[in-house]
Design a protein that fits this description.
five-stranded mixed sheet, rod-shaped
């Protein structure tokens, strides 16, 4: 809403004057209900007209006084607003005049008002009359709170709300004028809300953090090796808290035993975790071949066979046993099998025999070959 005041005088020699409203509006309504942009008046008084164009409303006020020929009449309009927390405002008439007369009959130079409305004062000097009009409106209370400084998780967003105040102007740190601001990255965010002379503002710091944890795929290590494994947490914020399954709170841990390990990282309201399993494998099989056996049926040392480390995987296994003349007397591809000291169902004679053993042992399937002598004892 805009307000304009026109200074019009009705003199003795001019019994009627034309009041002309500002042009460019779609419709006009005068204070007596008459429409049109012009109005003829022939008596002193205060006249006003409203001009409307879409959402724009313009008010023209005309003060008409009787001119005695010795006065010059001037008018002015002031717009006042209550500040956010003041109960009222002081209106001051133009200084330098001898007489003041307010619309409520007060004759002081100033007047305190505590309610919205239109107020006027008539000031008079020897050669001049001046009318000041004050339009007082009440501003709304502005309470802006963007919240405490906070942390948001990566790939998330946060909407900052500056409140909803009709007619107020909003200005964010990037110059935008929306009532809300969508935060998608770390930074300092500020908003200022203005309603007349009332201004409120707030600032908040938003930090975006990444707490997703990647300890990597499950790990296999060779049991026969002296292995050490380092596990590392992903930490961005200096305030992040780390907790491992071992009870440690450091960014990294060193493990020397197989098992399941997990980490949890918390930064503000964001939490990330991951788990990794470390297993020991028999990469290479340890084996033992006896140099003698006694197949006498007593249940002890009755078979000639290769003894492998318990649990070690064996593949491509083959064993051959030869007599002293090089004739093969026994063969098998079963790692659990063994020679019982017989040849074609008959007990072989005591003595020295030769053997060959080949296999792929351990998870690494390392090929191994051994040969030697075995003594059969009766």
């Amino acid at each position: 809403v805009s307000v304009a005041v026109h200074n019009d005088t009705l003199s003795c020699n001019q019994p009627e004057i034309q009041l002309i409203a500002s042009s460019g509006f779609a419709s006009y309504v005068w204070n007596d209900g008459v429409s049109g942009s012009r109005r003829s008046v022939n008596t002193p008084g205060t006249y006003w007209v409203q001009g409307r164009f879409h959402c724009d409303l313009h008010v023209d006020t005309f003060f008409v006084f009787e001119d005695t020929g010795s006065y010059h009449v001037r008018t002015s309009v002031h717009t006042e607003r209550f500040s956010c927390r003041q109960p009222g405002t002081v209106l001051s008439g133009t200084s330098g005049y001898h007489e003041y007369l307010w619309d409520n009959g007060s004759d002081s130079a100033q007047r305190f008002v505590s309610a919205p409305g239109t107020y006027w004062v008539r000031v008079q000097d020897l050669c001049e009359i001046r009318v000041d009009t004050f339009i007082v409106t009440e501003t709304q209370e502005l309470e802006i709170d963007l919240g405490n400084d906070t942390v948001i998780c990566k790939n998330q967003s946060l909407v900052l709300e500056a409140g909803t105040y009709a007619g107020a102007r909003y200005r964010w740190q990037d110059g935008s004028s929306r009532k809300n601001f969508n935060v998608t990255r770390s930074g300092t965010y500020h908003v200022q809300v203005t309603d007349g002379r009332c201004i409120a503002a707030d600032t908040v710091i938003i930090r975006m953090t990444e707490v997703t944890q990647q300890l990597g795929p499950d790990i296999s290590v060779c049991r026969e090796d002296m292995w050490v494994q380092e596990l590392h947490a992903t930490i961005e914020g200096s305030d992040a808290e780390v907790r491992w399954s071992t009870g440690e709170r450091s960014p990294s841990i060193t493990v020397r035993d197989s098992g399941v390990y997990w980490v949890v990282v918390a930064d503000g309201q964001c939490t990330g975790s991951d788990t990794v399993r470390i297993t020991e494998e028999m990469c290479v099989c340890a084996s033992m071949i006896p140099d003698a056996f006694t197949p006498n049926g007593d249940g002890r040392n009755d078979l000639f066979r290769v003894v492998f480390q318990s649990g070690c995987p064996v593949s491509d296994y083959q064993m051959r046993v030869y007599d002293r003349w090089g004739k093969m007397v026994y063969t098998t591809t079963d790692p659990r099998g063994g020679w019982d000291g017989s040849v074609r169902g008959m007990a072989a004679g005591a003595g020295v025999y030769m053997y060959e053993v080949s296999f792929a042992g351990g998870t690494n399937r390392k090929a191994q070959f051994q040969k030697g002598d075995i003594t059969l004892i009766r």
